[in-house]
Design a protein that fits this description.
This protein has a four-stranded antiparallel β-sheet with strand order 2-3-5-6, with no helix packed on it. Strands 7-8-9-10 form a four-stranded antiparallel β-sheet, with no helix packed on it. The chain has a three-stranded antiparallel β-sheet with strand order 11-12-13, with no helix packed on it. The protein is mainly beta. The two termini are 38 Å apart. It has one domain: Methanol Dehydrogenase, Chain A, CATH 2.140.10. The chain has two helices and 20 strands. The protein is globular and about 70 Å long.
């Protein structure tokens, strides 16, 4: 991270070391720069630079690189605080990482853009999936703060509130875009809200001060995993409003049907794999995921017209085929690393 003089383009001597802060340093674990980088700009709130990171989604090393979020002094580059996106030790939320899995699990990084409310002094973090995206047998439990929207104080890094959008993520359904900070009126009551668009084509809307859902979010039962060692969550949080903005299933009625014969052939092909509604878990046979991990909202996120109160979101109806297989040495170094402990490796094939 560099600080440059806007007039000259030269590094600011008093910032970090010769105008530079090495973001791979000062973390609670050593990181390999080949697996740890940044993909979006920091945000600056009340003279604090808040920085996320981008960590590759597979096991590059054990333990996995942490996705911690950090706050730095805007003048000197000195580290103010660190927020652990995977709770450590006695921190609240560590109990959601069963069998001590918090000691090795990582990722859960904030690679998507953050949003901030300067007046409140709050920063809103769209936290991604823990290691690995599609198999979580090594990380039993819900796994806070993976795939959550987390609100923290910019000055201290302390959590104000959080809401987990996906429990024990197995679909790479991490929030992919900056949360929208919007002022709305519901039943005559003005609300300072935050709206998070998601890959699974939901829009989650919360009071951005308290974290209370603007409309009810219901825990609904979802299918169990058939993969040995996997313990998928029994329920997932489903918002009652707004309605989903794209297709969320791969059932017969969802397949192409330009003619009866084409529809029949599509069913025959789809029947080679597991499929159904949203949160059908990855399987050894292979499961069709709709929306896929590249949509619905994806990286482009949403925009809001403050005059009309309308939210616009681009969506991608691109299915993914996710198959879980035991790793084999001949498949390369990434798979070989996974052999250090028993488990499964996800093979991904995206089809349009």
């Amino acid at each position: 991270m560099f600080a440059l003089d806007a007039k000259t383009g030269k590094p600011v001597a008093g910032f970090g070391t010769d105008g530079r802060v090495d973001l791979t340093q000062g973390l609670r674990r050593p990181v390999d720069p080949n697996y740890y980088t940044t993909s979006t700009p920091p945000v600056i709130v009340r003279d604090v630079i808040v920085v996320g990171s981008s960590v590759f989604d597979f096991w590059g090393s054990r333990p996995s690189p942490p996705g911690d979020v950090r706050g730095f002094d805007i003048t000197t580059g000195r580290l103010f605080w660190t927020f652990h996106t995977v709770p450590q030790g006695e921190e609240p939320g560590v109990e959601t990482w069963e069998k001590g899995s918090w000691k090795e699990a990582g990722n859960a990084n904030v690679w998507a853009p953050m949003s901030a409310d300067e007046e409140l002094g709050y920063v809103y973090l769209p936290v991604s999936t823990p290691t690995n995206d599609y198999y979580g047998g090594h990380r039993p439990g819900d796994g806070l703060y993976g795939e959550s929207l987390v609100c923290i104080e910019a000055a201290t890094g302390k959590k104000v509130w959080h809401y987990q959008l996906v429990h024990h993520g197995l679909w790479d359904y991490d929030p992919p875009a900056a949360p929208n900070l919007i002022d709305i009126t519901v039943d005559g009551k003005p609300i300072r809200a935050v709206a998070q668009s998601t890959k699974q084509a939901f829009l989650y809307v919360f009071d951005r001060v308290t974290g209370k859902p603007v409309w009810p979010i219901e825990e609904q039962p979802v299918p169990a995993s058939t993969v040995p060692g996997e313990m998928a969550s029994k329920t997932q949080p489903i918002p009652s409003r707004p309605a989903p903005f794209d297709l969320q299933s791969a059932r017969d009625e969802d397949l192409i049907a330009l003619t009866p014969n084409i529809h029949k052939e599509a069913i025959e092909i789809a029947n080679l794999f597991d499929r159904g509604g949203l949160y059908t878990p990855p399987s050894l046979r292979g499961s069709i995921q709709v929306p896929g991990n590249g949509g619905g909202a994806s990286w482009s996120g949403a925009a809001v017209d403050p005059d009309t109160g309308l939210l616009y979101v681009g969506t991608y109806r691109v299915p993914s085929l996710i198959k879980i297989e035991k790793p084999e040495p001949w498949r390369g170094p990434m798979i070989s690393l996974a052999l250090r402990k028993p488990g499964y490796q996800a093979q991904e094939d995206c089809r349009s």
